[in-house]
Amino acid sequence: MTAKHVALLALLTVGSACAVYAQPPDDAPPPPDQYQAPDAYAPQPADNYAYQPPDQYGAPPDYQGGAVDIGFFYDQLSPYGHWVESRSYGWVWLPFGRRASWRPYSLGHWVMTDYGWTWVTDEPFGWATYHYGRWVFDPDYGWEWVPGYEWGPAWVAWRTGGGYIGWAPLPPEVRFRAGFGLDFGGFNLEVGLGATHFCFVQERAFLAPNVVTYVEPPARNVTIIHNTTNITNYTVVNNRVVNQGIPVQRVEQATGQRVQRLQVATVTSGPAPRTAQVRGNQLTVFQPTIVKRATPPPPPPVRARATGTDLQRQHQQETQALQAQQAQERSRLQQIHQRELQGGTAPSSPRQVQGQQPQRQQDQQQRQQDQRQQQAAEPQRQGTPQRTAPNSQELAQRHQAEVQAQQQQHQREQQQLEARHRAEQQAAQHQPPPGQQRRNEQQQQQNKKNEPKHQEGPPPARRR
Fold first, then answer.
1. Which structural domain range is residue 268 located in?
2. Spatial distance between the Cα atoms of 324 and 316, rounded to a whole number of angstroms
């Protein structure tokens, strides 16, 4: 790995060899979804992000309650990813079983609670990685999670405008201070967060239960982000971290739905951590108290490394999966561009494609269309850029920029996958990672220069 990491061997474990990409059958019916998709916007095919934990690791150990330290994350998250020592952030965690284009806060949905907008996911590690700590993007190996001490409903930056809502993980430089709120520490969200770090959806898709199916292709972000503004806002209410972000009234107006307010019920002991559960008007979450110890916990355990044959088979599967995913993304972007050039609309849901749309949904669509017409006549909200229909030249320039962004993204993903494969192969052969190997060679050369030179024979006599 690069100089940013000094202990890659923890990453290169047999767990990565056991991660596979689950492919849903082509004829699988869409999941039950009462959400009515917006007009002129087809839900995206669900990316194959399905997670399969390695069987030989088993479930994480049970939690008996009480305050714990950062070492608690080591044990609980080891079955689901790798721990790597970063030069900048210490021990960080990388999930395995994820595509190269995977982003945090993508597999799940948003709910409104007494803590503000709260992220709910079925990912087995989500109770920790989306509510404690921060995420940072490593250009070589992808997203890494940095453990933290304070629980929050979701640590994300918000953007809105042009009919879109977007969110991206807050970096470790942005800290939360009790009684103060977010402390950016000089970090500029406008500059520090890349366009592809965001998940953008049309406003009317924000409440979708499986929101990843409505997320725009990352290549579209290079044009969407310029029509949005930063509205990140965290406050403290009754000693609770509240993620305000998008005003509830705006979401209700855009979706035509009433936003249910849930109360967070915390679980601090019992069996191994489980995903959050919505029951009635409550959201049950696992929320242990993480404290700082005077003596830091020992490093996370190192798993056994993969063998050459298993590693080769894994790398081949991952390469094929990445190629298939990128081909799907290129086709998806091309279809979007064709629809925009033709000025046509896309079917809004799989049910409409089959011509089986219930009358109730048709009525709801008509009401939403009437609401949109009324909203178009109202003055634009302050701070939100005004949308205008682009002409053919502007549309062509936008499409060209998005195609270039997609090509660059795919190149980065390919390089990222190849870099990880090389590092895993070296670890399987008990070789140090490239960055550490170079540093060892440089240190050896420096030691040789500092060695005293041996002289043959007696020293020369001094002159008086």
1. 5-293
2. 12
SS3 157: strand
What is the Cα–Cα distance from 432 to 208, expressed in whole angstroms? 45
Examine residue 377 and state whether it is found in any structural domain, yes or no. Answer: no
User: Into how many domains does the chain fold?
Assistant: 1
Q: Kindly tell me the sign of the dihedral angle through the C-alpha atoms of 216, 219, 225, 231.
A: positive
8 A C-beta contact, residue 368 and residue 349: no
pLDDT averages per 10-residue partition of the chain, 464 residues: 45 38 39 41 47 50 77 90 88 82 92 96 93 91 91 96 96 84 85 91 94 92 93 88 92 94 85 76 92 85 67 82 84 86 52 35 48 45 52 84 85 80 72 49 64 50 43
Sign of CA dihedral 18, 21, 27, 33: positive
The token duo for 83 is 């721990």
Residues 6+ apart with CB under 8 A from 73: 93, 128, 132, 147
| 289/151 Cα distance (integer angstroms) | 8
CA distance 13 to 210: 31
DSSP string, 387-446: P----HHHHHHHHHHHHHHHHHHHHHHHHHHHHHHHHHHHHHTTPPPHHHHHHHHHHHHH
The secondary element (H helix, E strand) that includes residue 353 is: helix 350-353
Is the residue at 153 inside a domain?
A: yes
Please check whether residue 281 lies inside any domain of the structure: yes
Question: Rounded to two decimals, what is the model's pTM?
Answer: 0.70
